[in-house]
Amino acid sequence: MNLKxxxxxxxxxxxxxxGLGAAAPGAMAAPLATHSATQKAVVTPYSATGCNGDVxxxxxxxxxxxxxxHAWLYSxxxxxxxxxxxxxxxxxxxxxxxxxxxxxxxxxxxxPTFSAVVGQYCFQFFQVYNGHTYPQGKxxxxxx
Length: 144
Hints:
single chain; four-stranded antiparallel beta sheet; mainly beta; 12% helix
């Protein structure tokens, strides 16, 4: 991590803590929505994790122009396949097989590394059952 990026993250975190005040444990703070027309604040995590339905994904911090990602089923075991999509027509599909739910204890799909391009990356899982295909969730994360 370069020093300028680290300092920006620390300063943004400190500004958020000062602006939001100390919250009680377990309390959720309201989102910070104070930007002027000439000021833009973008704070992006170095890596991102998200879930939609029973499908979860992890998008790593880009390194040397490349990136990695993986997906898993949060709790349910399904027979089917993952489709990974991204900018510039990126599309990778897993094998059709039984994918075990259970987070890091389940089965994970790791598509090959890819060019780290600004844009949105998504995993979608398709359950195959009795000759029909059923979508089970589509989490997306972005490289900004």
